[in-house]
């Protein structure tokens, strides 16, 4: 796709990277494939067909595929904006650093808090997904295990792995996702083959679809993609970051989008005429595997999704820890969070805080009697608010960034405007028409969180030092 944005035409050695030695992270140890694995695992592509697609279908019905098309367009625009930044700078601060380099300090502060919130709530969501699929696998034995224990296993294991070695962590994530995606692709392919080479007209004609349903469906469909940009948090650790990171961002977004679109279409088709509703199914691919004569795949997919949920928790913890560490370096969080492990060179303290942030809401909600599937949807919806905020701020920052580097062209302005407009429309869809409870209350929770972060910025004795560092 032609964007009019020039490729980086200077050697990497001449580009000023925002990764001073004070960060004390391992330098340039991740291959392009391992860098891609970070974004792919944060997306958790095998999780969306099993948990998110049914939620989207419950809202958008036969328009589920359309919700994913619109979400892919939004994410594709964001990916192009992020890639334009990633070609010029690399930092563990991810998108926060991109906004910080171009916007006034208060907006950079909002970007930091929004991004940290987005990663932590995504980690909480996929941890709830882990609990849901653990119970699917455990069956009757599951009633003897508290969801809080499973929550602790997922988040504790993620924090432990994230602190050990980022290279080992990305390899674990890569292989678990690869196996899961292959199994899901086989089942969806089998569904499409058994229904023959014809279009499913109720889907194409958007039979019974409402605007409000698709609008709300797009928000949940966007959750399927969130985390595609998380490779940008590996700016210090990736090899040739100005090349491999933008490639990872664009490839993960578009490959995941195609996968989700095919899965959404195939699942709606596969459940047609069934006594089971896709919108109420907690294990749709397991059901389709049994229905299409491969019951063994039902168990294998459940295992794969369980591991995928853990891998996504790990990826989000890795990204959140690096963002929080850089926030501490810039005075937006306590300096204690800037510490890294002396030998392993990972942000251990920030990682534990990120893990705790993912653990607590899931534990409290599950203890209150909320199902793990509902917690997955609720926390996922909350995370989208954070991502829409940071994506919008990055889009607004792009023309300023390009102008400072003498690269600003009409195509760059058009890309920025289109992306910002897409983020505004997606945000508007969360307010009108008014969604049902408890979804209608979530924006106020998010606004209260951002307000707290803003008050911290203005009241902090380090505010002048923070502003001076921009």
Describe the model.
With 470 residues, this protein is mainly alpha-helical. The protein is 69% helix and 0% strand. It contains 17 helices and no strands. It has helices at 32-43, 48-60, 64-86, 95-100, 105-138, 147-164, 166-194, 201-204, 211-225, 241-270, 284-291, 295-329, 348-367, 372-404, 410-428, 442-459, 463-468. Helix 1 packs across helix 12 (295-329) and helix 3 crosses helix 14 (372-404). The protein is globular, with a radius of gyration of 21 Å. Mean pLDDT is 85; it is low at 1-22.
Taking all Cα atoms into account, the compactness measure Rg is 21 Å
Overall form: globular
Structural class: mainly alpha
Q: Which series of helices and strands comes N to C?
A: HHHHHHHHHHHHHHHHH
The count of helical stretches stands at 17
Question: Can you tell me the residue ranges where pLDDT is under 50 for at least 5 consecutive residues?
Answer: 1-22
Average residue-wise pLDDT: 85
How far is the N terminus from the C terminus? 33 Å
Bin the helical content: 55-70%
Total number of β-strand segments?
0
Quickly list its features.
mainly alpha; 470 residues; globular
Offer a quick outline of the entry.
The protein is mainly alpha-helical and 470 residues long. It has helices at residues 32-43, 48-60, 64-86, 95-100, 105-138, 147-164, 166-194, 201-204, 211-225, 241-270, 284-291, 295-329, 348-367, 372-404, 410-428, 442-459, 463-468.
């Amino acid at each position: 796709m032609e964007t009019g944005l020039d490729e980086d035409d200077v050697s990497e050695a001449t580009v000023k990277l925002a990764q001073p030695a004070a960060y004390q992270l391992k330098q340039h140890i991740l291959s392009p494939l391992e860098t891609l694995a970070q974004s792919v695992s944060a997306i958790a592509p095998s999780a969306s067909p099993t948990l998110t697609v049914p939620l989207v279908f419950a809202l958008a019905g036969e328009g589920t595929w359309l919700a994913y098309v619109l979400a892919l367009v939004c994410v594709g625009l964001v990916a192009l904006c992020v890639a334009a930044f990633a070609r010029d700078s690399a930092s563990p601060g991810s998108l926060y650093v991109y906004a910080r380099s171009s916007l006034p300090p208060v907006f950079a502060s909002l970007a930091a808090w929004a991004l940290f919130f987005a990663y932590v709530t995504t980690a909480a969501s996929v941890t709830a997904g882990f609990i849901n699929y653990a119970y699917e696998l455990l069956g009757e034995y599951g009633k003897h295990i508290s969801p809080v224990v499973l929550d602790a296993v997922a988040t504790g294991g993620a924090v432990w792995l994230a602190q050990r070695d980022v290279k080992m962590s990305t390899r674990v994530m890569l292989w678990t996702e690869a196996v899961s995606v292959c199994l899901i692709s086989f089942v969806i392919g089998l569904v499409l083959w058994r229904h023959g080479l014809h279009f499913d007209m109720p889907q194409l004609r958007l039979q019974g679809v409402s605007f409000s349903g698709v609008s709300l469906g797009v928000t949940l469909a966007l959750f399927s993609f969130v985390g595609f940009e998380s490779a940008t948090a590996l700016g210090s650790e990736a090899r040739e970051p100005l090349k491999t990171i933008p490639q990872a961002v664009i490839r993960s977004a578009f490959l995941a989008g195609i996968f989700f679109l095919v899965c959404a279409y195939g699942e709606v088709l596969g459940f047609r005429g069934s006594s089971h509703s896709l919108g109420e199914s907690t294990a749709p691919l397991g059901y389709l595997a049994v229905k299409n004569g491969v019951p063994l795949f039902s168990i294998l997919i459940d295992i794969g999704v369980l591991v995928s949920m853990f891998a996504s928790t790990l990826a989000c913890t890795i990204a959140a820890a690096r963002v929080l560490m850089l926030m501490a370096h810039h005075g937006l969080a306590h300096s204690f969070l800037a510490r890294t492990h002396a030998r392993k060179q990972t942000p251990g303290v920030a990682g534990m805080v990120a893990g705790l942030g993912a653990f607590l809401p899931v534990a409290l909600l599950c203890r209150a009697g909320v199902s793990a599937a509902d917690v997955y949807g609720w926390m996922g919806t909350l995370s989208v608010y954070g991502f829409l905020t940071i994506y919008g701020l990055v889009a607004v920052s792009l023309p300023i960034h390009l102008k400072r580097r003498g690269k600003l062209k009409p195509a760059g302005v058009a890309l920025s405007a289109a992306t910002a407009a897409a983020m505004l429309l997606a945000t508007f869809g969360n307010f009108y028409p008014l969604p049902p409870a408890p979804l209608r209350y979530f924006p106020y929770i998010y606004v209260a969180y951002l307000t707290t972060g803003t008050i911290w910025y203005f009241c902090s004795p380090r505010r002048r030092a923070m502003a001076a560092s921009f």
